[in-house]
Amino acid sequence: MSLEQIAVREVIEDYLDQGWQVGDPRAAQDVVGFLPDVVLRKGDRHLVIEVGQVGGLPRRSVSALRRAVEQHPDWRFEVKLVPSDAPAATDRVAVEEIRDRLDLADRLIADGHGDDALLLAWVAVEANLRRMLADDRDSAPGTLLRRAYDEDRISDRELRHLTDWRGLTNRIVHGFRTDTDAAKASALLGLARDLSDRAEPRAAWTVGPA
């Protein structure tokens, strides 16, 4: 799977979390005059997204695409850029670094910085899921959660909590405050530490309570 394909899937998952629905690019082509990578709709609003590598989309082309889309009322155009190279194995977060980030998240909670702690805890969750599933395809976070659940690595309850927390971290990343309290941040931190234990190679492990 190419970086662009991974990015398209991640974009779609992020916007589905925000209440958008996936549209038909071929139907949109009749409106905007080109075949978009992603088309999303929410009520009367439409969002067209082009995904490309850094430096791979000429500014002149982007401007032309934006004009073609935004000449229509309630239609908006965005570009999502991805790195030109796939991350190497050495770019993965190491086990020691995961533990360091969780320790830092503990201190942030104690200092009243719940949102910052939540982000660090989520980084650890995602890194542990990749280790646990031996994921080498740079799968989107939503895909990691579904795989972990389908393979009985996480329980129903954990899937629900992780899905909710992923929505919170998306809001933080996009510039919104969640005012995450210490109890909620600590709960995610505890689950992140539990996933660290489960990600360690061992003969048997136990899924959390359903």
UniProtKB/TrEMBL annotation:
Cross-referenced InterPro entries: AHJR-like
Superkingdom classification of source: Bacteria
Domain REase AHJR-like: start-end pairs: 3-82
Protein name, UniProt field: REase AHJR-like domain-containing protein
Annotated source species: Methylobacterium isbiliense
